[in-house]
Amino acid sequence: MASLLSSWSSNVLSLPVDYIVPVERRPGNPVSISKDIPVIDLTHATKNDRVDIVQQLIKASQDFGLFQVINHGVSEDLMVDAMNVGKEFFGLPAKDKERLCDDSTKFGQKGGKLYTSSGQYSRHEFKYWRDTLQHHFHPLESYISSWPQKPTKYRDIIGEYTNQVRKLGMRIMDMLYEGLGLEVEDIEKEFDKYDCAFSINHYPACPDPGSALGTGRHCDPTLITLLQQDVYGLQLLNDGQWLGVEPLPNAFVVNISLLLEVISNGKLKSDMHRVVTNSVCSRTSLAIFVSYPSDGIIQPAKSLISPTNPPLYRAFQYKDFLEFLFANNAEPEAAMKYLKL
Ligand code: OGA
Ligand code: NI
């Protein structure tokens, strides 16, 4: 059997046993789409309304750790093209995709990965119903020649897409820093230090969505993540309740992630999320992860610390945290224990 789920899942009528999730982790009762999750319009984010928009971003980050943005400046045609190319990639014949699972290819040597389930965290006792293609993209000229050659439009479209979404990420980080009162002299310079990765997640239609998960509950180990989705499946844990995140056309879902929770000394909350599958159609999502270089030191921003506001999180090297997550299957509770003082 081929290793990628997308190469064989359409041939099975029932869920293979290694995908059956223990009862306490299953999706449970259907979760409806929440209308409470903020949708923030960035149209006027460069004008007088900026202060108001910054406040909306901060409030959403505090209340939910997740929001959606619309009128964000990324070309809508490009969003459609990128989603289509992502779907086409996972629709390729197995032999065209599976070559890239081999770490010794140019793709692998440049840090690209193609894996099924949770890949590196594969010591789970069960598998997740998903495949993921992940690679770096900045600076583009260092990576583009290692990217998939099929679909033929992949490099052009994803090159432009990652460039535009990265810029959006920069604007959002700039506004979040502003809202936190953090001085960032030059966001472009700051951003150049950040490590960005792009992922396409593919969740084929699943024969038994009630017993499977696309992605287990987790918080992203990044600063922020920007996600494009067109089919329902993403859920957010808020006040102990799962909320469905509406797939809005032309919107990006933005997750506040663990590193930003630490830097903001807990003022912003990282959100815990998961992905459920469905039996009707496949679901593809595109994600841009904005995070630190692995040798970077993360700690609560000095300007947010005072005798009345002591640090709630410790200082750590990012790569040590990533190693810890790897050893602990990215369990959210273990991650929090590691980060909190
Ligand atoms: C992730 C993630 C959500 C999705 O890749 O970290 O949470 O909808 N993805 O695919
Ligand atoms: Ni995530």
From TrEMBL:
Residues 193-292 form the Fe2OG dioxygenase domain. GO terms for molecular function: 2-oxoglutarate-dependent dioxygenase activity; metal ion binding. Gene3D superfamilies: B-lactam Antibiotic, Isopenicillin N Synthase, Chain. Pfam families: 2OG-FeII_Oxy, DIOX_N. InterPro entries: DIOX_N, IPNS-like_FE2OG_OXY, IPNS-like_sf, Oxoglu/Fe-dep_dioxygenase_dom, Plant_2OG-oxidoreductases. GO terms for biological process: coumarin biosynthetic process; response to molecule of fungal origin. Keywords: Iron, Metal-binding, Oxidoreductase. Belongs to the iron/ascorbate-dependent oxidoreductase family. This is Fe2OG dioxygenase domain-containing protein. It comes from Cinchona calisaya.
